Amino acid sequence: MWTRQRETSSMYKRLSSRDNTHTVDVDSRDYLNTTDMEENSALLQNNVAVETSNPPWGLSFPHVVVATISPFLYGYHLGVVNEPLESISRDLGFSGNALAEGLVVSTCLGGAFIGSLFSGMIADGVGRRRAFQLCALPMVIGAAVSATAKTIAGMLLGRLLVGAGMGLGPPVVSLYVTEVSPAFVRGTYGSFIQLGTCLGLMAALFVGIPVKEIAGWWRVCFWLSTIPAATLALGMVFCAESPHWLYKQGKTAEAEAEFERLLGVSHVKIAMGELSKTDRGDDMDTVKISELLYGRHFRVIFIGSTLFALQQLSGINAVFYFSSTVFKSAGVPSNLANGFIGIANLIGSIFAMVLMDRLGRKVLLLWSFFGMAISMAIQVAAASSYASGTYSLYLSVGGMLIYPQYPGSQMDAN
């Protein structure tokens, strides 16, 4: 009897101990689950905070600044022959030959056409940074060839090499700035491309001012362009590679490291997630060349290409290449007038940079092309036989100065 009672008591104790342990385990699991839920909730809140907060723009800013040296060089070489063209033709023995002068100007654009054909392939093949360096190389060599040219053939060869770098650079810089910039400043950083082009044009116009007083100054104008070109090539050694390009090459760890340099540690996972989503969408939405010509994307391609063509045909290149000739024929000192053209172009670029994200590209283009049409109408009126000498002078100079202020005249980079 006592033995049975002891066994029952022992069994009870064992059951009670087991039940008590079970109760403690349940309580522990509940506590741990509650703690995990709180930690997950806190983590979720932190993630939401990270998503809603913007990454520091200062991390990507130096990389964008170095990249915009390329459009600076583009603008510089567009305007470098404006003022010195007369001196170049005289020193190289083709003074008064309009065809030769036109070749000195247009050969650069021919080289740019060749370079642009290979820009996408090079950027995708060797990466954005090396593409910038390959862009700078012909600009250094070409500028040196032009600066030391003794004949028109040497000048044309140098301009052709420089043009190849000019054609390679703009597509790469637009791609690079888009891929390394935080979304909330991407439009502003994109405007830096146009601002760099305007600063390059201004630099070329101001550097060319002493060309009439100093013999052979046009050679210095070409030599000076090798400095920013070499700076671009060297600066890209220290800049971040595009995380988008690294990810497409299967270098995920390197892409994360570059995102950390550009956006900060807290934004890496979110940026990688968006990049992965975009990459999957690109794989699913493969576009054939035929679709660009007559398929679903034809309308977008047609509108974009037409805008590029109209922008070029509107006369902006004539303004920057031959403004000195226009002002000379109007009796205006070209040194002062070219400086005003550079300033007017810079003002228009600043307006575009401020208004682009507020008003949108379409509104700016519409008003810009309208203003450019008015400017061209003023210059046509100045050249007509109905305008007297004084009025013709004012109209010609005024129309020439008004034209570069409209952002649409140079919105091709954006």
Structure description:
With 414 residues, this protein is mainly alpha-helical. Helix content is 79%, strand content 0%. The chain contains 19 helices and no strands. The chain has helices spanning 2-52, 61-67, 69-79, 85-92, 98-126, 128-147, 152-180, 186-207, 217-224, 226-235, 243-248, 252-263, 268-284, 289-294, 298-313, 316-329, 334-359, 361-383, 389-402. Helix 12 packs across helix 13 (268-284). It is globular. The chain starts with a helix and ends in a 12-residue tail after the last helix. The model is unreliable at 1-51 and 409-414 (pLDDT under 50). Residues 63-414 form the Major facilitator superfamily (MFS) profile domain. This is Probable plastidic glucose transporter 2 isoform X2. Pfam families: Sugar_tr. InterPro entries: GLUT, MFS_dom, MFS_sugar_transport-like, MFS_trans_sf, Sugar/inositol_transpt, Sugar_transporter_CS. It is found in: Membrane.
